[in-house]
Structures are given as C-alpha cells and as structure tokens.
Amino acid sequence: MKKTILLIGLIGISFGIKAQNTFPTTGNVGIGTTTPKGSLHLSSPITSKNSVQNIDANLIIEGKSNTRATNQGASLGFVVPANTDGTNFWQQGRVLVTPDNNSNGNASGRMHLQTRYLNNQGTAWHWRDNLVLRSSGNVGIGEIVPKGSLHVSSPITSKNSVQNIDANLIIEGKSNTRATNQGASLGFVVPANTDGTNFWQQGRVLVTPDNNSNGNASGRMHLQTRYLNNQRTAWHWRDNLVLRSSGNVGIGTTSPDMKLTVNGNIHAKEVKIDLNIPAPDYVFKEDYKLRSIEEVANFIKENSHLPEIPSAKEFEQNGVMQAEMDMSLLKKIEELTLYTIQQQNEIKQQNSKLEKQQKEISELRFLFEKLLESKK
Predict the structure, then answer these.
(1) Cα 2 to the chain's mean position, in Å?
(2) Whole-angstrom Cα distance, residue 308 to residue 324?
(3) Fewest CB within 10 angstroms: 46, 61, 151, 368, which?
C-alpha cells in the first residue's frame, strides 16, 4: 500500500508545483484537489466536447505500441475477487480503446466495453465485446462491426421460448403496479417542423399487460401514432393496431372479438374468403324441395323478410357474417333462378296453348266463312 501511495505521489508531482495533491488519513487520494471524494479523486480543467487537440482528457491512459492494429489499444481495467471469500483478484471488466482502422496517421478510434467470460468448454477465459462504439457513430452490442446507429447481435430467439424474458433487445418499463394502460415502449422521434427542428415522438410500440390479474404475464401490443384532437388543443396517441394475447387483432379498437376486428371502413382490391360451410349447389338437385311462390309470398307477408335471411333487427344486433351471408344470398339467387326457369316453362306452356287455341280459332273462322259463302 505504501508503494502505491508513493507511486501516486510521484505522479502528482508531475502535475507541477501548482497541483494540489493530497493523501488524507481517510485513505482517499486527491490529484488536483484537497478534498477527495473517493479512493482516487482527479480534478483538472474541464474537457471541451469539441476539443481538436490530439490528447485532451482529465485522465490519460496511454497504450504504448510501435504498430497500429485494431485489436490492440489503451484500456481501463476493473478488478474484483473471483472467489466468494473475497480472494483471487481478477480483472473481470475493462474499457478498451483501439484504432478503428489500420491507416497510417488516422486517429479514428473504436471503444470496446468488455467483460470476461469462460468459454463453452470451460477451459479458458476470454473477453466479450458487450458494447462497441465505432468512429462512424454506430454502436454495436455483441457486434464489433455495427451496420446501423445501433446494432444488437445475440443468439437467435426461439419462437416457442417459454422463458419469462427472452429477446435480442429488452425494453423494460419499471412499475410497482400492473395496469393495462401502462407498459414498456419503443419510441420513434422525428422533426415536427419542416426545417428539421422541434423533435417529437410521433410513433411508438407500447406493450402493456392484457389484464389486471396478479402473476398473469399475458400481454397486449399497441402500435400507435400521435394525432391532434379535433379541437386542435392537445396531442394524443391513437391505437392504429392492437394485438391481444387471445390472438385477436384490432384496427381502430382495443377490444377485438375476432381474429381481426376493424372499427372503420376497409378498402381493398380483392377479398378472398375460405368457406367453412358448403356452397348451396344442392339447390339444383332433383330432390331439393323448393318452396312455392305462394309460400314465399306468405312468409314475406308475415315476417317482412326472405326465408332463411336474418331480419333487419338481427342484422343490427349481430352484424353480418360475410361468408355465411354470401352463401345465403347465393342460395336465394339459385332459388330465384329455379323460379325463373319454372316461370319460363309455364310461359312456354301458356304460349303453346295460346298457339293451339289461335290455330283452332283460325280453323273455325275459315269454316264459318265457308258456310257463309255457301248460303249466298
């Protein structure tokens, strides 16, 4: 310990006569301060964010080398006990700054925040790049060559994972309560002004509990965009898309009662519906019992709607099941086609009778005219 204090003292002398280097009885060491607040307290002029000096910091850590390599640099180590009894000190974490390229005279830097880990075979200790900051401004978590502003690389997540927390990127919303209107969110911020200023969060993914039950991890996901109310007095979040733990999806509603519930209009070029009920081609079978027109007329007179078609009140209460209704309407069209064929056949029969009667009338007229001529 005495050697350490002596070494720190010698370092302090290098600051010059004006430096205030102290070794209080508390055991704290001050460099540039007479009231050290920690085991080592370094005080010097503040560092400018926009400094252009080649070396400028309150504490300088220099890694000497005759080469420039991206896997070697200056580091700050953190040593803690490896044993539970407080012995066997090992460096278990470090900040390592290396060159960001191999170019001569290029001072671009790369910063690695590393922790030590034991390999899968349990035979050797290595350094893991938990966080990497590149001179490009990109940040890598588990990735030393980040492809974007933030690049997270970790083992793939299983679709069928049953762990309580399992994802490549975890966003935690801390709370002492469980409420369906509060959760963890991922925000997206862009300018609100046309000149690129006035940054506002204009969209977010919000995940909340799907119920208020204690110990129930069912979740609800909201895809939201910000909007201005009709009075143009306040900004709110709109639930554009809501995914429930039931598997139901809501558009314009937070309470979808089916796989897809839309509170609003739908605009599409085409809609395909897979049927779970048979198409009514059985109407054209010979053994199909078609109601008579009289029966249909009486039913309409009594009920004010077609047979096998819900009433207006039922539509209002229950809505319309599209596939079922399409098949019911198709059935009525097919029945109408049968009625039309029947009517056409009856018309043909009537025409045939009329033609026969017309022929008989013509023959009688001919005979009558013959009779009149014979009497003359």
Answers:
(1) 59
(2) 11
(3) 46
Gap between the Cα atoms of 205 and 239, Å rounded: 10
* % of the chain residues with pLDDT over 70: 93
Nearby residues of 258 by Cβ (< 8 Å), 6 or more positions away = 248
pLDDT digits (tens, 9 = 90+) for 309-323: 999 999 999 988 888
Alpha helices in 2-88 (DSSP H): 2-13
Residue 239: phi and psi, rounded to 5, are: -80, 90
Element (H, E) at 315: helix 312-318
How far apart are alpha carbons 100 and 102 in whole angstroms?
A: 7
pTM of the model: 0.69
Residues 6+ apart with CB under 8 A from 223: 203, 205, 239, 240, 241, 242
Q: What is the pLDDT of residue 27?
A: 84
Q: What average pLDDT does the segment 126-147 reach?
A: 95
How much of the chain is helix, strand and coil, in % rounded to 5?
A: 25, 25, 50
State pLDDT tens for residues 259-273: 999 999 999 999 888
